[in-house]
Amino acid sequence: MRKILTITAGKILIFLSRMLGNQGTDFPGRAARTLYPGILKALAANIQEEIFIVTGTNGKTTTTNMIASILREKGYTLVHNTAGANMLSGITTAFIEASDLLGRKKFDYALLEVDEAFVPLLIKEVRPRVVIITNFFRDQLDRYGELDHTINLIKEGVRNTDIELVLNGDDPLISHFHNDTGLHCWYYGFAQTIYDSVESMESREGRYCVFCGHELDYQRYHYAQLGQFRCPECDNHNPDMNFTGNKLKMNPFIEMNVNDLFIQSPYQGFYNAYNILAAVSAARLVGIEDRTIQRAIAGYRPRAGRMENFIINGKRTILILVKNPTGLNQTLSTLLYDTKSKNLFIALNDNAADGRDISWIWDADVEMLADVKARIVYVVSSGQRSGDMAVRIKYSGVNPGIINIKSDLKEGIELAVAGAGETNYILSTYTALFECQKILRKLQKDDSKIVGQRQLQA
Amino acid sequence: MAGFVIAHMYPDLLNLYGDRGNLLCLQQRMRWHGHDCRIKNIRLGEKIEYANIDMVFMGGGSDREQGLVYRDLAGRSDEFMARIEDGLPVLCICGAYQLLGTSYIAVNGQVMEGLKFFNFITRGAKNRLIGNVLIKACMDGDEISIVGFENHGGRTFFEDDTLQALGRVIKGYGNNGEDKKEGIKYKNLIGTYLHGPLLPKNPAAADFFLKAMARRRGVELDSRLDDYIEKIAHEQIKNRLLAK
């Protein structure tokens, strides 16, 4: 009875929260957990096949969504939490939303994107079969202390279980999971690619051996600290891979073979190649046939904030979520490949979900904006910490005369899209993202109305 | 045009929370003043040629990394301290600041030696002191506000009454969350828990170092920089903290 009441209350709260224009992801779950602390455990019992968890610093959402689209392509039913709602409350909301009022509806799989720090807590309530770890990059450290601590939390959480791990074998910070947990580990990683470099270009996380502390030797870097490494002191090196990405091509869309399976995707960027590789590896472990995997990956398109496109004043406008130095670097490097001149809008918030410490903007290579190839003609810095972002951009070498500060998101976006650039890039941290998306949708609608009226008059 | 050199000590080991922003800030501001400024990375075991260096910067790191740095510096700390006495500008953030004291006592009771430049001690604690900070400090004779972000487990206590804090805590925790002191200032050295990074949104603190560097070389910094954007960033967080 308590279960039914809690589900009913949860569903009402999800509905109300949506009505009020919120994403409605965290609050209903939190309220439900207060009413009935066992709610998540009870609903997780409705999963017939397996529960999969995806965690790690970057690529969680994309990897989870790709696996979900493969399983849906196969016809399975799923519980799947939506972008960013990856703490216990958000996951509880996802289960309540999918459930019927009696809490008895069955699903084949649950596919859960989980914030690193919440993995141990979640495992106490639901028992996953597989935990997929994408990578460990510097991200929002202020919430938990340092990266070592986060990694230990996850190791503690999975120890003494029968969980199987799917791990990025190219990440030196993950390679000791097998030794430290004794769990069965599956590894994925890339063979040599034409995009590799012998010199590292980015932040230094994980460049030291996790066993002995000696500096690692890299034969090649694929992307950031991901690559082929060996410790000269204790011989720690990449594990043998179960799933190898080879013949990677980005023209600019991704093509590669995973072992012998040919994969094509409308996504771009090496970081997305890793997401695809992780998703294909997980799908193969479940035993999904090749054709289904190929079709699902080829048909999987970018979503909210992952390079979502709008047309405003006839100009292509791209909304991109940025939340840590690596993500911002990825975004800035795509700006360099776009030859059009640009108006740039960046919203920086410092709510809990963004990370209270905004100093990460100084760890990103914002200097790319000052590169002539970036063709930045107008900048608007916005959000709660618009001043800090503007300072960061100023010190990158961008002419201070083109930098504007408008903390209000709507005024900021309107100012930015009125700039002289041929295309608009709208970057935002997490808690400003959905507001930005709403503003852009509205501007796009107004834009098409005006175009419509002009056509009528003509 | 003069050519200045700032030594970045152990960039591979001590470089947390955007600390390199302090270097970018000093370098750009020196350039805007019309002088060249180069960053020289110093790694473990590498000789420090003080005669060719105008300033030293050290950032924060995890316990393991701080241990490596201590072992590297301990054998040659006398010369470093002599240069500090001589007025060498030095900025030490968080872990590097803790290293300047006598010791660090971890939660489990383990004692890590410090360089013993100053008589203060740091005690580890389980819960970290995290959040935005506002302090009042005195720089080049003016009282100024300084804003930043702190994130440290260690609590630092002065054991010598003559030590001068960088500033007085208005909002936030500072050295230990108890005595309202934040950081240390001694001649041209500043040690502090403030990340953020510190210098870009506190241009007065950046100018303290620029002026000290210039003075030691007999160079005049005559141009005034436009700090309009920096001031907005500074006021934004300061006003928010004061409104609480």
| Termini gap of chain B | 46 Å
Biggest sheet strand order of chain B reads: 2-1-3-4-14-13
Strand content of chain A: 15-25%
User: What is the fourth-level CATH superfamily of chain B?
Assistant: Class I glutamine amidotransferase (GATase) domain
Which pair of protein chains has the largest interface, and what are the residue counts? A-B, 31 and 36 residues
CATH class of chain B: Alpha Beta
Largest sheet of chain A, order of strands side by side?
2-3-1-4-5-6-9-10-11
Our Rg estimate of chain A from Cα atoms comes to 22 Å
CATH architecture of the largest domain in chain A: 3-Layer(aba) Sandwich
Q: Major sheet of chain B: size, sense and barrel closure?
A: 6 strands, mixed
Describe this structure in words.
The complex is a heterodimer of chains A (458) and B (244). Chain A has 2 domains: 253 residues, UDP-N-acetylmuramoyl-L-alanine:D-glutamate ligase (3-Layer(aba) Sandwich); 152 residues, Mur ligase, C-terminal domain (Protein-Tyrosine Phosphatase, Chain A), CATH 3.90.190.20. Helix content of chain A is 37%, strand content 23%. Chain A is built from 14 helices and 17 strands. In chain A, the strands form 3 sheets. Chain A has a 9-stranded mixed β-sheet with strand order 2-3-1-4-5-6-9-10-11. In chain A, helix 1 packs antiparallel against helix 2, helix 4 crosses helix 9 and helix 4 packs across helix 10. Chain B is an alpha/beta fold. Chain B has one domain: Rossmann fold, CATH 3.40.50.880. In chain B, helix 1 crosses helix 5. The longest helix of chain B has 16 residues. The N and C termini of chain B lie far apart (46 Å). The model of chain B has no long low-confidence stretch (mean pLDDT 93). Chains A and B meet through helix 12 of A and helix 1, strand 8 and helix 6 of B.
